C-alpha cells in the first residue's frame, strides 16, 4: 500500500488536523477498513440484456452481490455504498415506473435487493428523478439505509447551513473495530451525497418549482466540515460525478478531480460517466495516478456501470491517542463481474447472489412479457453498427416519428406551415459498454423491446423555433464527433471516443456533407473552439441552399433543451412545444400507425470525398455481415481486436 502524506510530509491524520487540534501519537497496530461501492446500476438487477432478450454475463447486481460476499469475507470490517442512478435505465425500470399498478402494489425490487445486500447508504444520481418525485419518494421510503443528497434541497437557504433538504444530506455510520490487542474502538464514518447540479436542467419538467439544487462543491465543503465537527473519523464523498477537469468551473458536471484537489475527503466514490477507475483507460496527469486510483492523495474509485464492477478501497487505519484514527495507507481497485477472453468472448467471474434472482424474478418475467408485444414490423434490419459513419435507418425512424408528432401538435397554431426538421442520435454505439452495446433489430416483427432499444431514455418531446444559421450551428456541434483527417491519410482513427454516440445528432429534413479535413467548431464536450471553424458544407433544404435567416421548427428532446450534449442553441426562449409524451412513446405510436417500416428516403448526409484517403473505426463483429447495407462510402472489415470489437476501414475517395 502507498503511504499517505500531508503537504509537509507528515502522515495524514485528516480528522484531527482539520479541527486544528494537536495530533496525538499512534497508539496501536493498524487494521484494514474496507469500502465497497457500486454506481450507475441503472436497474440492472439480473445479468440480462432486455433489448436483445438474452442473458448477459457483463452486468447485474446479482453478480455484484457475489463479489460483495467475497470482499466482505476477506476482512472483518467494511461498509457498502451506492453512488446513484440505481432506479432508472433499463426496460425493467421503465416498466415498473410506467405500467400502472405494478410498482404501487409491491416494494420496488431494486430497493429490496439493496436491503438484502445490506447497503449502508446510497446517493441520489440525476436519473433517480427521471420518473418523477412521487415515484422516487415511494421507492426510497422502502430503503433500510439512508438515501443521501446534500445539494438537492426542498428550499435553498442563504448558505448550505440553512438549506431544507429533500433527503438526508449526510449520514454517520458506526463500526466497532476489533484491534490486534483484543480491544474494541468505535469508528465513525461520515458520508456525503452529491448530485450533479445540472439535474435541474435535464429534469426541469419534473423538478421546476419543487426542488432546488446547490453546486456540488459548495455543499461538499460545508458538509465535510460539519461531519468532522460531529466527530466523524473518516468522511467519504459519494459524488455522482465523473473525474472532470480541475481547472473547470466550480459547478461543473464532473468535479471529482476538483473535490480531491481542494477538499480533504478520506475517499471518494465517483460515478455518472460510466468509466472504470482505476484503470489504464486514463492517462497519468498531475495529481492523478490512474492505475493506483489516487487523485491528489485521495483514494478514488469509479466502478463502471450496470453492475459491471465492484469498487474496493482498503484504508489502513491506526488508532491515535485514546480515541480517533489515522489513515496510514490505502489501496483502491475494481473487481469486474466478467472476464473477456482473448478471442473476445466473455465469461462470468463470479456466481450470482441467488436471493436477488428470487427478488427480481416476478418483475423480470413481467418485463419480458411486456417487451415482447409486437406493434408493427420492419422490412429492413434496424441497427446502429454504422450509425456514427453514415445515414442510419434506425435513427431516421426516430427523427421521422418526432417530426410527425410535432407537425400534428402544431396544426392550426401560429407556426403551422413552417418547415419541420428533426434531430435524433443513436444511443447504443459500443463505446465503454463494449462490442455488445449496439442496436440490432432484424427484419420482421417490431416489439416494445425494440422500441426501447431504439430510444432507451425517458426524454420528452420538445420543439424549437430556430433560424437556418442556428440549425447549421447545431450540425457543427454534432460534427465534433470526428477528428480532423489529413487528406491522403490511411486508416486514420477518426471517431473521437470522448464524445458519446448519443450526442451525435443527425438531422432529418436537410441534406449536407461533413468535410473531415476542416477543423471542428466545437470540442467533444460541446465547448466552442473557434466560431470561424466549420466542417458542415453543402447544407440544403429541399434542394436549395439553406437560408441562414429562414425560420425552421426543430423537433428534439428535453435532454437537449436541458443542456445535454452541449447544443448551445437549444435555449428555453426558443421553445414552442414541450412536455407531454416521451419520445419513446411517440416512436411506438408512429410505428403502430404505419404498421410496416420500409425506409425509402435516400441518404441525406455524407462525408466529403477525399482522394486517396481512408479512415478506420470499430463496431461489433456482427456488423461484418451487414457491410453491404451500409449507406455511404465503401466500408470493408479489417481485424478482430482483443477488446472484442471489429475494426473497419472506410474509403473516402
Q: Could you give the topology of this structure?
A:
Elements: E1 2-3, H1 14-18, E2 31-38, E3 48-49, E4 54-55, H2 61-74, E5 78-82, H3 91-98, H4 109-117, E6 121-123, H5 133-140, E7 147-148, E8 152-155, E9 164-165, E10 170-178, E11 184-194, H6 199-202, H7 204-207, E12 212-213, H8 216-229, E13 234-239, H9 256-262, E14 267-269, E15 276-277, E16 288-289, E17 294-295, E18 298-303, E19 309-319, E20 325-336, E21 338-340, E22 346-348, H10 354-371, E23 374-378, E24 382-383, H11 393-409, E25 420-424, E26 440-441, E27 444-447, H12 448-454, E28 460-467, H13 468-478, E29 492-493, E30 506-508, E31 511-514, E32 536-541, E33 544-545, E34 551-557, H14 558-561, E35 575-582, H15 583-594, E36 596-597, E37 605-607, E38 614-619, E39 634-640, E40 646-651
Parallel strand pairs: 2-5, 5-6, 6-7, 11-13, 13-14, 14-18, 23-36, 25-34, 29-38, 31-37
Antiparallel strand pairs: 1-20, 2-19, 3-4, 8-9, 8-12, 10-11, 15-18, 16-17, 17-18, 19-20, 21-22, 23-27, 24-26, 25-30, 28-34, 28-35, 31-32, 32-33, 38-40, 39-40
Outline the structure in words.
This protein is an alpha/beta fold and 653 residues long. It folds into two domains: 2-364, Purple Acid Phosphatase, chain A, domain 2, CATH 3.60.21.10; 374-651, 5'-nucleotidase,  domain 2. Strands 10, 11, 13, 14, 15, 16, 17 and 18 form an eight-stranded mixed β-sheet that branches. α3 packs across α10 (354-371) and α4 packs antiparallel against α10 (354-371).
